[in-house]
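DM from R.C. (forwarded with permission)

"hey, sorry to bug you on a friday — could you get me a structure for this? deadline for the figure draft is monday and I only need the backbone to look sensible"
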Amino acid sequence: MTILAIIDTKEADAVVNPRDQKLEVIKQRCLHAAQVKYICIYPPQLPRYRELREQILGPPDVVSSG
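My reply, with the result:
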């Protein structure tokens, strides 16, 4: 198995303290270094399945079957 992406849900208007902001930056840098996509979505605006799939795998014409 291979991890393709990390999907995080957050409240759009949540107040984030400076310590949490620093931890968020570290998390994103580590995931980027590991070549794992990081996607943050906000619950009231959840993307449709196809939109989320495209964010993870790219456009359908690029996705190879197999």
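R.C.: lifesaver. The first strand starts at residue 5 and ends at 9.
me: no worries. DSSP finds two helices and two strands in the chain.
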